[in-house]
Amino acid sequence: MESIWEFDPETIDDDEDQKKFVIWHTDVWLPEAVGLENFGETTRSTNLITDKVALSIDIKKEKKVLVPITGEAFGLLMFANCRDRWLAVFDWQAKNPHLKTVPSYRKCDGEQNIEFKNRWSGSNDGERSGGGWNSDAFLYYNDMMAKLKEIRKKEADTGQKRFLKVLEYLKAIHSKKRKGGKEKAPPKKKKLERTSAEITLVTIDE
């Protein structure tokens, strides 16, 4: 996930798996990471992630970056923090379809069910009562911040080729969605015309 923006925009069309992953990352994961109000369907299919836009929900109408580096970095942190636990949960659910309650990690029971523990967060982590984040989480977050800053600077210096390639994909996808979901034209109105012999239906073009 951390290397998502390292793809080659010149050859990605030939790698279907990587193409699908890049599309999923930008069209599904990023909106969840930074918020649909920032990166909704219309917005992400018409703008680069680095574009500055005044959102309708912003009273001050200030132009802001659609996908802030802080938001993307925190999303990567959350993904890295929870990924192993999610995989363990999915595996457990597949093996135990008749059970509803997923096992939980308990440090007090001698690292019981450790596969269901988040990587850096939990009730026994952090400095506050009730849990928080392990200090390694902040190191990871800072690393992601630095990496994303470097990626965006490189993109700005080289014509945004990767970001433009992804936008090309999203435009095509959502254009098809809009066309496929286009409402049918309402039926033309009809009126009755009475003649001496019969009643005839006449179509009215509006």
Q: How is the main sheet built?
A: 2 strands, antiparallel
Order of helices and strands: HHHEEHEEHHEE
Note the overall shape. globular
Q: Provide the spatial order of strands within the biggest beta sheet.
A: 1-2
The total beta strand count reads: 6
- What is the SS-derived class? mainly alpha
Specify Rg, calculated over alpha carbons: 26 Å
Give the helix proportion (percent range): 40-55%
Number of helical elements: 6
Taken as a percent bin, the fraction of beta residues is 5-15%
Mean pLDDT: 83
Query: Segments where pLDDT lies below 50 for 5+ residues?
Result: 182-187, 189-206
Distance between the termini: 54 Å
Write up what this structure looks like:
With 206 residues, the chain is mainly alpha-helical. It has a domain at 4-67 and 160-203. Helices cover 47% and strands 10% of the residues. It has six helices and six strands. The strands form three sheets. The protein has a two-stranded antiparallel sheet. It has a two-stranded antiparallel sheet with strand order 3-4. A two-stranded antiparallel ribbon has the order 5-6. The longest helix is centred in the middle third of the chain and has 27 residues, at 69-95. The protein is globular and about 50 Å long. Mean pLDDT is 83; it is low at 182-187 and 189-206.
